[in-house]
Design a protein that fits this description.
Keywords: ATP-binding, Isomerase, Lyase, Metal-binding, Multifunctional enzyme, NAD, NADP, Nucleotide-binding, Potassium. The structure is a single chain. This protein has two domains: 2-225, Rossmann fold; 228-492, 3-Layer(aba) Sandwich (UDP-N-acetylmuramoyl-L-alanine:D-glutamate ligase), CATH 3.40.1190. Helices cover 43% and strands 15% of the residues. The protein has 19 helices and 18 strands. The protein has helices spanning 7-18, 25-42, 58-72, 89-97, 110-120, 141-150, 195-198, 202-206, 228-234, 260-270, 284-293, 317-328, 338-346, 363-372, 379-384, 386-397, 432-445, 450-468, 477-492; strands at 2-4, 49-54, 76-81, 101-104, 123-127, 154-158, 186-190, 208-212, 223-225, 249-253, 277-280, 298-299, 306-309, 333-335, 357-359, 400-403, 409-411, 417-419. The strands form three sheets. Strands 12-11-10-13-14-15-16-17-18 form a nine-stranded mixed β-sheet, sandwiched between helices. A seven-stranded parallel β-sheet has the order 4-3-2-5-6-7-8, with helices on both faces. The longest helix has 19 residues, at 450-468. The two termini are 21 Å apart. Bound molecules: ligand NAX and potassium ion. Ligand NAX is lined by residues 10, 14, 26-27, 30, 55-60, 62, 129-135, 138, 158-159, 190-191, 214.
Length: 494
């Protein structure tokens, strides 16, 4: 499990540790880990060319001390001092005594000289700002970031890519064609992950994230991201004596005569979700289409362990009755798509008899659900603060909320938040949500909690998206569906 802590939590944990350690210990631990990663990326340190982008705070100090370690091993290290008067004094002295060079930003001819050094570098270390950064890159850092992007060097961000908001992953808009954040191949982060490394757009800037343990003992995380092993532990596996009913039966109320495809896709995905059986509940003609595609499905109402309701059911009176019938069954329920639009009309009271609910809105549906709580919002507002809105919805509806998007965020009513690390833009395709609903619904029926079903469903769905788009070709929701068994194999080690 990857865990992320807020800047405030990191600062508090750092203060507690610094109170009992000799001064400078934490920075030395950070710099040592950073230098090891950089040396690994360089392969041969002796004779390599390393450029440090050094800002005015301790993030620059980390870069300078790590640069000193590489210089001692024979690398040519040049530090570009973006705030020459405020560069970390101890770090700069260490670099110089190790044989490294520095070039202050106020030196004559700095821009051209700095760009030449960047163009010739094997590795660039971004120590402009870390958790103390506010807002995006400014001149001259923004010009350098552009030069770094055009150079062939490996880019290593120190703690987090400069310009990325550590707590939210937000990256300010591009100004005058210059990047507002540095794009890294590898980020070496200290003590714990920062939320901005796990949430887009920040996550996309961070590249591969490596964690260096510096001994921090932070409290409960503000954000979690599951890994293969976490998902493998949660996924249902049939025991020897199990029968199909013990494995869980999912009731699926999806599709309408207008949108039969949603039912077929959701059913197909549910058959790959680990439940023992599936009951389709809906119009006769849609049931026939479902049966034609998936003969293993039972058609018609009956006893189920969980329901998934909503994709393609439409929003008329008949759909309202279907949703009400599902919610009256008092089993855990997943509500998606049209089901969410209808739920938003009645607000959280419609879920009062439900033992556990999972809501899976995209940003537009989230706006409707928020209106059901009496809160006005916009799509853009939700996109810009995904974690905050997912939390508010989870608390307001007393349900787990899976907010779909470039980074899918899952919040539970207690305020715990997960981000899904496996997403891909290829999943932004018609019917993709129906696949997620069927899959997560089946996991719910198999006995996972709404939050576990959301975390595992989003994870497998994302992996399947990657597998389906493996050749870089656009894929359809049906391709994602076909890739689901491959995603299970990947997670469970086949
Ligand atoms: N907190 C910890 O536990 C540890 C922190 N360390 C390092 O210290 C960093 C935090 O250091 P600081 O608190 O000094 O803060 P930073 O070095 O992240 O940045 C703060 C400095 O940057 C300036 N600044 C802020 N936004 C800017 C922008 N957009 N453009 C240009 N300059 C900007 C500020 O005026 C301030 O001088 C961490 O990210 C990490 O790299 C490590 O040395 C080890 C331990
Ligand atoms: K940085």
């Amino acid at each position: 499990m990857r865990e992320a802590h807020s800047v405030e939590q990191v600062r508090a944990a750092e203060a507690a540790l610094m109170a009992v350690l000799p001064e400078g210990t934490l920075m030395q631990r950070a710099a040592a880990g950073l230098a090891v990663t950089c040396a690994g990326l360089l392969g041969r340190v002796y004779g390599s060319r390393v450029v440090l982008l050094v800002g005015s705070g301790d993030n620059g100090g980390d870069a300078l001390y790590a640069g000193a370690r590489l210089a001692r091993r024979g690398a040519r290290v040049d530090a570009l001092l973006l705030s020459p008067q405020r560069a970390h004094a101890g770090g700069l002295a260490a670099l110089r005594s190790a044989g490294g060079w520095s070039l202050p930003a106020d030196a004559p001819g700095f821009p051209a000289a700095a760009q030449r050094l960047v163009a010739a570098a094997d590795l660039v270390m971004d120590g402009i700002v870390g958790i103390g950064g506010r807002g995006g890159l400014r001149a001259p850092a923004a010009e350098l970031a552009q030069a770094v992007g055009q150079a062939g060097a490996v880019v290593v961000a120190v703690d987090l890519p400069s310009g990325v908001d550590a707590d939210t992953g937000a990256v300010p808009a591009v100004v005058e064609g210059l990047p507002s954040a540095l794009s890294a191949d590898v980020t070496v982060t200290f003590g714990t992950h920062k939320p901005g490394l796990l949430v887009d757009p920040g996550a996309a800037y961070a590249g591969v994230v490596e964690l260096v343990d510096i001994g921090l003992e932070p409290p409960a995380p503000v954000l979690r991201a599951a890994q293969h092993a976490d998902i493998a532990r949660l996924l249902p596996r049939p025991a020897r004596e199990t029968d199909k009913y013990a494995r869980g039966v999912l009731g699926l109320a999806a599709g309408s005569e207008r949108y039969p495809g949603a039912a077929v896709l959701a059913t197909g995905a549910a058959l790959h979700g680990g439940a023992g059986a599936l009951r389709y509940v809906g119009p006769r003609a849609v049931g026939d289409a479902v049966l034609a595609a998936h003969p293993e499905v039972m058609v018609g109402a009956g006893r189920v362990q969980a329901y998934a309701v909503g994709p393609g059911i439409d929003t008329g009176e008949e759909a309202r009755e279907r949703l009400a019938a599902v919610l009256a069954d008092e089993v855990p329920v997943l509500v998606d798509a049209d089901g969410l639009t209808l739920l938003a009309e009645s607000g959280p009271k419609a879920l009062r008899n439900t033992p556990g609910a999972l809501l899976t809105p995209h940003a537009g549906e989230a706006v409707r659900l928020l209106a059901g709580l009496g809160e006005e919002s916009t799509r853009a507002g939700v996109e810009a603060d995904r974690i905050g809105y997912a939390r508010r919805l989870a608390a307001g509806y007393a349900a787990t909320v899976l907010l779909k998007g470039s980074t899918t965020v899952i919040a539970d009513p207690r305020g715990e938040v997960w981000v899904n690390p496996t997403g891909t833009p290829y999943l932004a395709t018609a019917g993709s949500g129906d696949v997620l609903t069927g899959l997560s619904g089946a996991l719910l029926a198999a006995g996972l909690s709404p939050t576990e079903a959301a975390v595992c469903g989003a994870y497998l769905h994302g992996l399947a998206g990657h597998l389906a788009a493996d050749e870089g070709a656009p894929c359809s929701a049906s391709d994602v569906l076909r890739a689901l068994p491959g995603a299970w194999h990947e997670v469970c080690g086949a």
